[in-house]
């Protein structure tokens, strides 16, 4: 990712992301040189100048917030550590291809005896970049083409156009991103998009044309998102055999909604975490800012991960995971390899003539145990991407009678619970997605549910 150099009267290089000295690069020094080095390490120093070289369209005031902490260093070790941290912050901005750091003794008539100069040598990204990749969603795949204008106005702004063609969904959109000066995590985004999707379990096709604005900001240990979204939604039938209940839903609607999401995430990985917890709480209110769609949505997700170590702590471990999803007062679908395993994709709950209609409230939970593959060696290799998976899932979905109280709603959700258990193998695709191949035993099956008794394959990002 770059090189950090610390130079004295006789320079010696220092390499690595941890800014440590590479002993292979050090030459044998005389006693006088060792004394100079000891003085720099043990006595106070003053950072007199911090320079940035290689800037083109980037404004210097935008970077000043990211490197100002280097001036607070009081010895050489602190200078190196804070310089490394500043370098990481510069790379995080997404506007530089490469950042290197050089630490020099100050020179000149006004230089202090213990003064240092820190120089960041940067290489900016091109004005226009493109990308081509594939993505794995919830049991679907897609090809994604993107064009990006990074650092468009010189202060971290980004304009992105993206086209996605998938097995069930096709979309394209234009987004503008603007971070706050000195606070990258606090940012604003504006999005324009069109999404066309097919939902064969409901014999529905849907086209959404929308605009949204969102504000992201951290607050203490939490991350928050405030969002307004306006959507023109068009629903149609996938086939002439669609049920009458599905045909009734067809047509055009306008949605104007305000939403808020709070997230606490201490997991070490979003795809297959070894430890940590996730709490996500979101609310969405539609109909009070315009449009003809009106609803209140409450969504809660909780995940806990606990490692159990057997044998070598570096290579052999198991993970116990507890997950809970819960949502009320808007239409949802449940079932499939990414939620309640052992059931067909979104094939739990009310249905009409084979078309699943979803429900207005649901809950789902899971208990998982992930272990290394049996009979594997202690050497790291391809086997580290695989995990043995044991699971127990449960959930329910229903419609609500709004004349009844919350107690009646909870009682209805507690009736006719679907659950399943089984085992399988998981393949982690980097930190992007994961694949599951499980053998499932569905239980608590109700009339109309579609089951997958036996082998079930799943691919996606978000799993229960």
From TrEMBL:
Highest taxon, organism lineage: Eukaryota
Residue span, POTRA domain: 45-125
Single biological process term from Gene Ontology: protein insertion into mitochondrial outer membrane
Pfam families: Omp85
Record key words, sorted: Membrane, Mitochondrion, Mitochondrion outer membrane, Transmembrane, Transmembrane beta strand
Locations listed in the record: Mitochondrion outer membrane
GO cellular-component term (any): mitochondrial outer membrane
Record InterPro entries: Bac_surfAg_D15 (IPR000184), D15-like (IPR039910), POTRA (IPR034746)
Membrane topology: Multi-pass membrane protein
Primary localization: mitochondrion
Protein family: Belongs to the SAM50/omp85 family.
Protein name in UniProt: Aldehyde dehydrogenase 1 family member L2
Source organism: Sinocyclocheilus grahami (Dianchi golden-line fish)
């Amino acid at each position: 990712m770059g090189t950090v150099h610390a130079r004295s009267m006789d320079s010696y290089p220092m390499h690595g992301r941890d800014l440590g000295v590479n002993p292979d690069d050090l030459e044998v020094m005389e006693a006088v040189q060792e004394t100079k080095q000891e003085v720099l390490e043990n006595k106070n120093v003053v950072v007199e100048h911090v320079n940035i070289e290689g800037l083109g369209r980037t404004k210097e005031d935008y970077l000043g917030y990211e490197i100002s902490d280097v001036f607070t260093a009081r010895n050489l070790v602190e200078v190196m550590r804070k310089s490394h941290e500043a370098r990481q912050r510069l790379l995080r901005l997404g506007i530089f291809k490469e950042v290197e750091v050089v630490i020099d003794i100050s020179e000149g008539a006004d230089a202090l005896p213990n003064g240092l100069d820190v120089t960041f040598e940067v290489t900016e990204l091109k004005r226009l970049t493109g990308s081509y990749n594939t993505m794995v969603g919830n049991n679907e795949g897609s090809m994604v083409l993107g064009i990006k204008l990074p650092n468009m106005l010189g202060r971290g702004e980004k304009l992105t156009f993206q086209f996605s063609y998938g097995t069930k969904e096709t979309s394209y959109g234009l987004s503008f991103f603007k971070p706050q000066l000195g606070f990258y995590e606090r940012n604003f985004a504006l999005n324009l998009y069109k999404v066309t999707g097919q939902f064969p379990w409901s014999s529905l096709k849907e086209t959404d044309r929308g605009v949204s604005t969102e504000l992201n900001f951290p607050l203490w240990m939490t991350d928050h998102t405030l969002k307004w979204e306006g959507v023109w939604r068009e629903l149609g039938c996938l086939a002439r055999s669609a049920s009458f209940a599905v045909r009734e839903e067809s047509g055009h609607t306008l949605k104007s909604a305000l939403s808020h999401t709070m997230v606490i995430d201490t997991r070490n990985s979003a795809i297959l975490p070894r430890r940590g917890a996730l709490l996500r709480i979101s609310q969405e209110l539609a109909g009070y800012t315009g449009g003809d769609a009106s609803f209140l949505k409450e969504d809660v997700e909780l995940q806990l991960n606990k490692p159990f170590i057997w044998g070598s702590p570096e290579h052999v471990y198991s993970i116990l995971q507890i997950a809970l999803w819960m949502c009320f007062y808007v239409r949802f679908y449940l079932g499939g390899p990414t939620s309640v395993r052992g059931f067909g994709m979104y094939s739990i709950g009310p249905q009409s003539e084979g078309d699943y209609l979803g429900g207005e409230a649901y809950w789902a939970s899971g208990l998982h145990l992930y272990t290394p593959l049996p009979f594997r060696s202690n050497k790291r290799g391809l086997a580290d991407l695989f995990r043995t998976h044991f699971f127990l899932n449960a959930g329910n979905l229903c419609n609500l009678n709004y004349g009844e109280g919350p107690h009646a709603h909870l009682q209805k959700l507690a009736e006719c619970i679907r659950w399943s258990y089984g085992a399988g193998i998981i393949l982690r695709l980097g930190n992007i997605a994961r694949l599951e191949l499980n053998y499932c035993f569905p239980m608590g099956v109700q009339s109309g549910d579609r089951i997958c008794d036996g082998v079930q394959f799943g691919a996606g990002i978000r799993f229960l």
